[in-house]
Amino acid sequence: MDSINQQQPEDNFENLEGNEAWKKMKELAEAASSCFFCSNIKTGLPFSTRPMSPQKIDDNGDLWFLSADDSHKNDEIGKDPFVQLLFQGSAHSDFLNVYGTAEISKDKEKIKELWQPILKTWFTEGEDDPRITVIKVSPTQGYYWDNKHGNAIAFVKQLVGAAIGKTLDDSIEGKLEA
């Protein structure tokens, strides 16, 4: 444990497993204001990062994205299916790091299920655009950083801690495992 966390009067680590882990992952991922999709993570090359939004996070914890079949991302996943997803909910909380395995398909039923009209910006022929692929990311592990009681209470704790010279914050973090 690092020196800052050792100064905490409250326990601020909680590793989560199984359904509890995937429930936390889904909660943070759905609340996120941004997501970065990283590929090429195990090739030894610098990994590639791009902003993407999951179209769906299902009850199994799988994350679903739509992508063009000729994209760099699809090419990279074809060579290395291991990916990392980075989520940020706010400037002060709701951070999530997820590792997983990506699969690409052209499942027409899944495309219909995930389709939203705004996607026509990229897929100009609509949901029948022949370039659309589905990327399914099945998480294998993750790590989260959050506040136990929300940003307002975390902020008050920080103010009090600064005033009395003691480490007081409302943070909680831990591993997410299957």
TrEMBL record:
Matching PANTHER family: PROTEIN BLI-3
Domain of life per record: Bacteria
SUPFAM superfamilies: FMN-binding split barrel (SSF50475)
Pfam families: Pyrid_ox_like
Protein name according to UniProt: General stress protein
Organism this protein belongs to: Mucilaginibacter conchicola
Domain General stress protein FMN-binding split barrel: 21-168
